[in-house]
Design brief:
By secondary structure, this protein is α/β, with parallel strands linked by helices. Helix content is 43%, strand content 13%. The protein contains 15 helices and ten strands. The strands form two sheets. Strands 7-6-5-8-9-10 form a six-stranded parallel sheet, with helices on both faces. A four-stranded parallel sheet has the order 1-2-3-4.
């Protein structure tokens, strides 16, 4: 703050993502005469939390920006705006059927894929149970589950649910860094979450390359998915509902090709869903050419902060960025 004031640098906005920074960012913002924005990561799910946040945000003069309509609604009238977070389009291009080949899955077989951190919150157990009980096995379908794990006990539990299908029709491939190859290897993506999904970056990534998604409706997914058009919305987070959705996909497999084109087209046509570069330019850097906006990049975890900084570099040149920062 002293350096900025000494050098007479004008800061329009301070933007942070972790609610724990609300007091410190408010203090800095008020010291510099800047607007303070909180980019919300998730929904507010308890009325006491909602009341507290409404009080503290008004008191500290912090403006919340939701990451979906659902998130905006969850915090109440104090939040006037929402901006869907950007997804990294570059991670999704130039993929090939790597995992179909590695796992030795027949070319004609239908493949469902679930890419997420392996944890109880992500409800992989419900999806595996639904897959086992559905018509998937009799039809020769496969399920590929990608993601790292912290709870070895839960991973072992999931593998036990697969039973004799483990390694045959149900495959665990661990953490991957080539989502483009993963989505090129599957026909339908599956997503699940115990509770509301505030937005769903993985859902948008899947749709962007033409892979329709089976997903629990609560939260942001219902703003992105049109039921039976670019995916299937699950009304209740139960084995029964996921089983019915999987069976519906299998029985209507001939329509998948049309849904792939529709999925990709709807994402491209939706002006509210941005790539990370578009998100950086349109939302926070619209005044960058005036050299008077400084972004406090506490928006995401380290990986997304690094992606954001990289787009500073690629979009504007290193010299401009260094001058700005």
């Amino acid at each position: 703050v002293n350096y900025i004031n000494k050098n007479k640098i004008t800061i329009d906005s301070i933007i942070f993502g972790r609610v724990t920074f609300v007091s410190s960012c408010s203090f800095i913002g008020r010291s510099l005469g800047s607007k303070i924005f909180w980019q919300m990561h998730g929904s507010v799910n308890h009325f006491l939390t909602k009341n507290y946040l409404n009080f503290i945000l008004r008191f500290l003069r912090v403006i919340p920006i939701a990451n979906s309509k659902y998130t905006r609604f969850s915090i109440g009238s104090i939040c006037k705006n929402y901006v869907y977070p950007g997804f990294d389009e570059s991670k999704m291009i130039d993929g090939y059927c790597k995992y179909r080949s590695i796992l030795g899955i027949e070319k004609e077989a239908l493949i469902f894929g679930f890419a997420a951190r392996i944890s109880y919150d992500k409800a992989q157990d419900i999806v595996i149970k639904a897959f086992v009980e559905s018509n998937a096995i009799n039809s020769g379908a496969h399920l590929i589950i990608a993601g790292s794990h912290e709870d070895l006990k839960f991973l072992n539990y999931l593998q036990s649910l697969a039973g004799e299908l483990y390694g045959k029709n149900i495959h665990f491939i661990g953490w991957i860094n080539d989502l483009n190859n993963f989505y090129s290897s599957i026909d339908v993506a599956i997503s699940a979450c115990r509770g509301a999904e505030a937005f769903g970056i993985s859902i948008v990534e899947s749709l962007s390359v033409g892979v329709p998604v089976i997903v629990y409706y609560l939260g942001g997914p219902s703003e992105i998915i049109e039921n039976t058009v670019n995916g299937w919305l699950i009304e209740d987070l139960t084995v029964k509902d996921y089983k019915e959705a999987i069976n519906l996909v299998i029985s209507d497999r001939n329509n998948l090709k049309n849904m792939k084109y529709t999925s990709k087209g709807l994402i491209q046509e939706n002006g509210e869903i941005l790539t990370i570069e578009e998100f950086t330019r349109n939302v926070y850097l619209e005044r960058i050419e005036e050299y008077n906006l400084i972004l406090v990049s506490l928006l995401w975890k380290r990986r997304r902060s690094r992606d954001l900084y990289q787009n500073f570099i690629t979009s504007y040149s290193k010299e401009k960025v260094e001058q700005l920062l």
